[in-house]
Design goal:
mainly alpha, Rna Polymerase Sigma Factor, Chain: A, Arc Repressor Mutant, subunit A, 2 domains, 10 helices, 73% helix, globular
Length: 187
């Protein structure tokens, strides 16, 4: 979303719930996709997404721009809601991740969808913190600044986390035969 438009909508939303609707419509599929990708369960993702927007709606008057966007703030709320969910439901961590459904995936051919499924399966084998970083960066396509804000870390720290996440993914893909499934070779 255009930052100027977003800023104007946020200011209007502080006074009117009707103005919040535009922000909701824009960010709903993105936040739902992020949460669904982390849980692999549609109902749980719907609940956490709903909690995220309820919290944002009730706290929007306290939101101020401090170097990050409203969208980054929403992702941070969703991230925190996910942490709370997994603390309360530790057995849910082992849920099988399903392929993230989005408009782009609908247009991908079957081979691309299959490759994405293989990569998501490989990511599922990583520690949660690595899954989080890779999902935000490559599936949600957020900037490093936005991801650092969501995770509550410095940009330099994020760069290290991203490097370690990619290195761990590469190792998993080599070790567990994912590369053969993708017909790729990594050095």
């Amino acid at each position: 979303m255009d930052p100027t438009l977003e800023r104007g909508l946020v200011e209007k939303a502080k006074e009117s719930l009707k103005a919040f609707d535009q922000l909701y419509e824009y960010y709903l599929p993105r936040i739902f996709g992020f949460v669904y990708n982390r849980t692999g369960n549609k109902e749980i993702a719907e609940d956490i997404t709903s909690q995220t927007f309820m919290k944002a709606m009730t706290k929007i008057k306290t939101f101020t721009y401090k170097g990050f966007t409203f969208g980054a703030w929403l992702y941070r709320i969703a991230h925190n809601n996910l942490i709370d969910f997994y603390r309360k439901n530790p057995h849910q961590v082992d849920i099988e991740m399903n392929r993230l459904e989005s408009d782009e995936n609908v247009h991908n051919d079957a081979e691309q969808a299959e490759k994405q499924e293989i990569i998501l399966d490989a990511i599922r084998h990583l520690p949660e913190q690595y899954q989080q970083v890779l999902t935000l960066k490559y599936f949600e396509e957020l900037t490093n600044e936005e991801i650092a804000d969501i995770l509550g870390c410095k940009k330099a720290t994020l760069a290290v986390k991203l490097h370690r996440s990619l290195k761990a993914l590469k190792k998993i893909m080599k070790k567990d035969g994912f590369l053969k499934l993708l017909h790729l070779h990594m050095k």
